[in-house]
Specification:
Layout lengths: L4 H11 L15 E7 L2 E9 L4 H14 L3 E7 H7 L7 E7 L1 H10 L9 E8 L2 E7 L1 H5 L6 H4 L3 H13 L1
Pfam families: DUF302
Protein name: Putative exported protein
InterPro entries: DUF302, TT1751-like_sf
Length: 167
């Protein structure tokens, strides 16, 4: 697939949303940021963690395991950058979920498989640990999935993330 320069720039802009956070965000409540790329709106929730970077990652991984979720991968972007002699802020993406919750959704809408498993980003910018994930309503937007289909699964994962890093 060949992407136009405009499309690549839009995707890059969407991926660089965390660099605009100010240092005063330390006490920010849950905030929703919208990113527009290729006529699609992606709504990402970003919340400040009350824990340091490593503790935040560890607490999230433990919380997912305690709820019998599978951690499919933890992607360490900072480590990958260091492998090619580049420097960047700490950033890890945890890819997690459970086939018990996801399979019925993918059966109802096969294209929903592109949105699963769930992902959460933990990053640290200017001493501030931020946790970002796609809002449940945004995740199901444009799919055949209704909120009633996910209120006891995906929506609960969102609540678990928020509770784990703020309490």
């Amino acid at each position: 697939m060949v992407m136009s320069l405009t499309a690549m720039m839009a995707l890059t802009a969407c991926g660089n949303h965390l660099t605009s956070q100010s240092s005063s965000a330390k006490t920010m409540p849950t905030q929703t940021m919208e990113h527009h790329a290729m006529n699609t709106t992606h709504t990402t929730k970003t919340i400040a963690s009350r824990y340091d970077f490593n503790d935040t990652v560890s607490r999230l991984q433990s919380a997912f395991k305690d709820k019998n979720m599978t951690i499919f991968a933890t992607i360490d972007h900072q480590h990958a950058a260091q492998q090619v002699d580049l420097d960047m802020q700490p950033a890890k993406v945890i890819v997690f979920g459970t086939p018990k919750a996801g399979t019925p959704l993918m059966k109802k809408d096969p294209h929903f498989a592109l949105k699963l498993p769930l992902k959460v980003l933990v990053t640290e910018t200017d001493g501030q640990v931020l946790v970002s994930f796609e809002d449940t309503h945004a995740l199901i937007a444009g799919s055949q999935i209704d909120f009633d289909d996910v209120k006891d699964t995906l929506a609960n994962a969102e609540k678990l993330i928020e509770k784990t890093v703020t309490q």
